[in-house]
Amino acid sequence: MGYSIGLASILNVILALKTPMHRPIDVILSGLLISPEIYLWVNLVTFNQVWIERLTATKKDGWANQYAAENGKTKSKLTQGLLSLCLFIAFVVMLCIYFRDFLTSTPVQQSIYPYLMNGWILLTYLTIYQSLYMIYQIWTLRKRIEA
Asked: Which parts of the chain span the membrane according to its record (predicted)?
């Protein structure tokens, strides 16, 4: 699994170096894999917000929201969201601690074992596929191209 992270880091550094007018901080962050992780979390939050808005009964005017945001008339709900997330995680951890005897019992372990094994096998195949694809991308980036 570690070599997959290394391949991703090498691929990101190559792409950053081939990008016109790249800065040293761009190359450093691409090697550390911090920026892609933040990008993925932002995409996940945006994806969830769009689907929640689509599935709600009340519809919002997106252009009015955009206009209000440009004029500084909106308030961020980031603090509320982070606090809710922390409370939810704390609640789940407390439930796991309270029910630890049940969760670690033999019947529960035997019932989830096949699912865990199938999940690890699938994860192994996906990691191998992704690693081979990254090696292919690194191989094809040897040409004189610009990102």
From this structure: 32-52, 82-100, 112-136
Report pTM. 0.57
3-state SS record for 30-82 = HHHCHHHHHHHHHHHHHHHHHHHHHHCCCCCCHHHHHHHHHCCCCCCCHHHHH
Token pair 């630890």 in the structure block, residue: 100
CA distance from start to end of the chain: 27
User: Would you state the structure tokens that stand for residue 145, as one six-digit string?
Assistant: 């191209």
DSSP 129: H
Q: Is 12 exposed, middle or buried, given 0-12, 13-18 or 19+ CB atoms closer than 10 A?
A: buried
Task: Tell me the per-residue pLDDT of 12-61, one tens digit each, with 9 for 90 and over.
Answer: 888 888 888 888 888 888 888 777 778 888 889 889 988 988 888 888 88
Largest CA distance in the chain: 60
The residues, ordered by sequence, that sit 6+ positions from 5 with a Cβ below 8 Å of its Cβ are: 33
**Structure tokens that stand for 78 in this block:** 């980031």
Instruction: Identify the residue whose tokens are 């599935």.
Output: 55
